[in-house]
Design brief:
The complex is a heterodimer of chains A (105) and B (283).
Chain A: E1 16-20, H1 27-37, E2 42-46, E3 52-58, H2 59-64, H3 67-81, E4 87-90
Antiparallel strand pairs in A: 1-3, 1-4, 2-3
Chain B: H1 4-7, E1 9-10, E2 15-16, H2 21-31, E3 35-39, E4 45-50, H3 51-56, E5 73-75, H4 80-89, E6 94-99, E7 102-108, H5 109-118, H6 129-141, E8 146-153, H7 156-163, H8 165-182, E9 188-192, E10 197-202, H9 206-221, H10 224-227, E11 233-240, H11 252-270, E12 274-278, H12 279-282
Helix pairs in contact in B: 4-5, 7-8, 8-9
Classes of the chains: A alpha+beta (105), B alpha/beta (283).
Amino acid sequence: MVIRLSEFELPPVQDILLVGRAAPIGPEAARRMLEAVAPEQYEVFELDEGPVGAVAVRRRLLDLCPRDQLLRLLLEEASRMAPDNMVIKGKVQIDVIVERQVSLE
Amino acid sequence: MTCVTDVMQAMTVTASGDESVRSAATRMEALRMDCLPVIGAEGKLIGLLTCWEVRRAHPNRLVIDSMTKRLVYVPSTATIWEAYRLTEERETEYVVVLDRERPVGMVARTALEVAVALQTDALTGLPTAAYLQKHLEMLWHADQEIYLLFIDINQFGRVNKRLGHVVGDRILMGLTQILAARTDAEHDVLCRYGGDEFAIVTNRSRLDAQQLGRTLVSEVEQAGDSLGHTVSIAVGIAGGKRRPPRQQDPTPIASLINLASRASTEAKRANGGILVVDIAAGA
């Protein structure tokens, strides 16, 4: 008998969760799960078309990037690899690079 | 069987939005049901789980994530024809029946198809007497001025005996085409009432209804070539506006149909082709 113990990460989801339209869980189940393990930290968006039925996004990401832009980028990349019967978690890193010219006079 | 409540199934067995599709599907299979109404936390209807969704969804999914939320409603007073038309217009397999804004049952499109087919004459494709009565009731209660043209084929029994029923059936189908070509769906409803009898319910004016009757008599008389046999019809027209409540006939529709039917018999005897009777006069 082998027992493997490891820490259960909380929340178990990183920054985003893409829920396939035919996945074993749906948007409501994802919403309830996230609300139970990480209250008020995620927002779930349901989609009308495409292989992805819903996207859960960590709320602080939405402070850094407009929702529509973030969703568009995620779906563009996800649709290449995510079949509709999977639930995929992902990490998003947003770096803001500032370039400014200053006068040294 | 003409009202939507005659064919609906009551919502005695339901599913919860919080249960799994697997659990709901097991119940559907055990009870041989194709559709379960889904009840939400507040005891309200929030969707329908049909066998289509059960087939498509992962069994682990919650019912609330798999059900159809787009509900189409029909009042409990609707006829099967109205409900069937609605399923076609809204492309839905089920409609929810409302009674005083409360869901009381649901009807499958397939059940409506069967019910409508039972009320459709197999030979001519026209609605039967049951539809005629329902339509008359609807117009009557809407206080519209209505006329019923009762059309009887003269000597049709002899045609059947002399030429055979197959020829007789062909004549009936040809006659249906002639009558249908002259009726206007906006004003008229054409039905096959009996073996050699047709009826048209119309909300045209008295004069227009009479003119329609005359036109039909004339066209049928001249249609010998297309029908393959010379045929003539007698038309009895009865109708008018609803009388005041205190004089109301307890069975106004039956009386109206009788009046029109007797008028067509009189027209046949008088060899005039058409006879008009007003409701008040015929009382």
